[in-house]
Amino acid sequence: MYRLVRKILFLIQPERIHDLIMALLGILRNVPFAGALIRALFCYRKPELKKEVFGLTFKNPVGLAAGFDKNGDRYNDLANFGFGFIEIGSLTPEAQPGNPQPRCFRLVKDEAIINHMGINNLGVRHAIEELRRNKPDCILGCSISKGAKTPFKDAAKDYVRCLEFIYDFVDYITINVSCPNVKGVTKLQDSDNLSEIIDKMLELRLMYDDYRPILIKVSPDLTKEQLDEVIELTLISGLDGIIATNTTRDRSNLLTDQATLDKIGEGGLSGKPLFEKSLSTVRYIAEKTKGNFPIIASGGIMTPEQAKQMLDAGASLIQVYSGFIYNGPSFAKKICKYLYKSKKQASASK
Ligand SMILES: Cc1cc2nc3c(=O)[nH]c(=O)nc-3n(C[C@H](O)[C@H](O)[C@H](O)COP(=O)(O)O)c2cc1C
Question: In sequence order, what are the beta bridge partners of 241?
Answer without folding.
Answer: 215
